[in-house]
Every structure is written in C-alpha cells, then in structure tokens.
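Why this split exists: single-chain examples teach little about how molecules sit against one another. For that reason, every record in the complexes split bundles all components of an assembly together and asks for one structure covering all of them. Below is a record exactly as it appears in the raw files.
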Amino acid sequence: MQKRRTSIFLLLFFSITGLTATALAQQPAGFVGLTSSVSSYYQELMQVITGDWQKYGEVFTMLTAEWFRPIFLVVLIGVPLVFALHYLIIGAKHFDHEGEQVLFFSAYNRIVHLIAAVSFSLLVITGLLIIFGAYFGGGAFIRVSRYVHLISALVFAIPGILMFAMWIKDMLPQAHDIKWLFILGGYLSKEKKPVPAGKFNAGQKMYFWFSTLGGGVMAYSGYLIWGFGGSLDTIRLFTIIHNILGMVIVAFYFTHVYMSVFAIAGSLQSIKTGYKPKNEVDILHSRYKY
Amino acid sequence: MARMRFLCDVERCIDCGGCVVACKEGNHVPVGINRRTVVTLDEGKPGEKAISVACMHCSDAPCIAVCPVDALYQRDDGIVLVSKKTCIGCGYCFMACPFGAPQFPKGTFFGARGAMDKCTMCAGGPEETFSAEEHKLYGQNRIAEGKVPLCAGMCATKALLAGDADVVADVYRKRVFQRGSGVNAWGWNRAYTKK
C-alpha cells in the first residue's frame, strides 16, 4: 500500500512538473515555431551558416569574378603603354651629368630605399602572379608566390616605416604641388622650364603616401586575409580593399619605375650614388634648397 | 545528362550527425575539416530544426568564378570539384561561398592554408578515377561506382537526399503532399494566421 502510494505520488509529481516545464517553455516563444513560414526558417538558417551573403559576399564575388582581374590587366598593360607612347613621342629628359653635383640622398636614405625597392618589387610581382595565377596553371609556383608575397611584406614593413620617418617632412603637401599637377610636372613638353617642386614633386609625394600609409593598410588587410583573422564579412571587405588599393599602388609603382629608369635619363644614378646633377635639380626640383 | 543535387528534408532531419561522421570517416577527411555539418536552429526550443549542410554544387558557382588559379570546375552533371594540386589556398572561394563549404587544412608555412577541401559529392577529383592518388586526395568516388554519396546513403531518416535532381525533387514533392506540413497544410493559414 505504502509502495503504491509512493509511486502514484511520484507519477503525479513528474507529470505535473513535466507539464509545467513544457508550459513554461512554450510561454515566451508562444507558437512562433509552428506559425513561422518555411521561407523565414531558411532565412534564419542562412544567417546562421554564412551571415548575410548579399551584404559583402555578393559584392566580393561580383568584383573578384568580373572586375579585379580585368582592371589589373588594364593597369598592367595600359600604364606601361602610355609611358611607351610618352617615351616615343616626347622622349626622355636629358641633363648634363658632367657638371656640378648636389648630394640628394644620404647613404642611409639609399640603403633604406634599396631594401624597400627589392621587397616592394617582389610584392608587386608576386601579387600580380597570384591575380593572374590561372595563366601559370596555379599549383606550387603560385603557392610559392604567396609565400614570397608574405615574406616581402614582412621585409618591406621595416624600410616602409623608416622611409615614412625620414621623408615625411619633405613629403608634406605644399601649395605648389597643385601647380605641378596641373602641368603634370612638365613631362608633357620637351622644354626645360623650372618645375614647381621641392625635394620631392607632387607625383613622388603621392607615391610616398600610397606606399607608406597605403602600405600599412595593405599590410593590415593582408595580415587579416592571410590568417582569416576576422569575421567572414570583415575578410571579404578587407580583400576588396586590398585589391583596389593594390591597383592604385601598382600603377604608381610602374610610374615610379618609368620616371626613374626611362623618363629622366640617368636619374637612377642618384639613388645609387646619392648625387644629382645641379642643372637637373634646378629644373625638376626648382624649390629645393641645397 | 542528369543534374546531381543534394536536398535536406528539414522535417526529417533529427540532428544525429551521422552524415558528418560517415563523410569524415569514409573519405579520410583531414583533421580539422568537416565537409558536411549539421546546423541546428532554436536548439532546445519548440520548433527546433536541424539541417545538414555541405557544398551545394551550385549552378553558376561563385567559388569557380572567383578562383584566381581556376582550380575549381564543374562537371557536366553539376558536381563542383577542386584540383588540390592547382589550389594555392588563397581562400577566395570561402569568401565567395554562401554556404561556407570550402574548408582549409592548416599548412606548414607561417600558418598558410593548405589546399582547399570540400564536399565532392563522393565523386573524387580530377585525377584518374579509382586511382590511389584520387582516393588519397579526395576520398571515395562512389558516383563512379553508381552509388549515392556516403552521407545520403547512411542517413537513417532519409532526410538527406542526393542524386538525379528530378528524382530527388520527385521524392521530396511526394513527401510534402503526403504529410501536408507547414504552410502547405490544408487549412493552415485560415486556422492559424492572425489577421
């Protein structure tokens, strides 16, 4: 009798607590689970799996699939083509290298620039290799390019910071830079009229800001992309930024190479020896006080 | 040619995770990678539902569109496959995928990702069918054997369907008519939708 009473009590106890628990569990949600439509269920599901794909995923896919590679191709072919035409039509500027020389870059400047030049060139080359990897069949070669891209970025960080520190004073924008931009530094004519520029002209200044501050953005975004160091949407956004800023930097890189190697005959010497001919400085960097 | 497709019947999936284990074990998937995963919604609440998700083998797949080295391709039967020898582990496919399907093993170089691994619908890869190399890189090639993928084959409640799209759709359609669930059920809106 005692046993039966206990079992009935337990049965009742469990039934009541069970029912109460069920009722309580139903309370906040009500019948949401039952009335919500199938489509809203899938909407919630997709949020759980990948977040809002339409926000950045779709943009990323569209840009990467249809725009980035063609634009890089235009930069890769178009910019050198424009310079080739410039070289053929207007030609290089020649200055007498025999006369008086002006010390333009200290040994420290030149060493920092050399490290920057090598690592930055590697960054541009490997970056382009990754973008056009399909034409090289991918695989080990492009994989190694990615590794070199990372190493070069780590190396470039050092001269990048040093360059920023040593040239920032000369690279600050001045009023005459606007004038320089309007005449495009006098590169569209064969005349040798003094050009409004201090130690660095407006073009060099733009390249400086894009490669140091822009380089910082590239480094940070690249770091996040490399290790997927953020939410998926963050990574998508930073990949878009990395690519678009990359285009600008590559265009400036080609410009810098053309100017130093071809457009001004013998100007490459100044970053090797540190000296520029006085008559060249008087024309191209007319406001430079030596 | 038949278009191969996956379909997970949400009303039937019981969140057992058998598909995940079957795939991982049967294909010797690398550590840290699940080609398939079961997502649970409203866990522990009324209306809890689970769905098994893997690569959907999309028509016009975003991963194929963004791959910088063209490592991804689509077979005539719609199955999207990756060439692990071509893949450079850049991760673009993962960023483009709406389903989070591409997975990456940890590489050895400064935390670089290894070659992408994803659901092959048990159809191997670009290497020679049934070769040891294909098996090592991609797992089983059950499609070539005329079988459904491991996950769908073992699904206890037959929630996960895989195969010819027309057949899969037909099976699912019959089920929906039979059980008359959700918004499709007769009288549902009239009875329960609040005006």
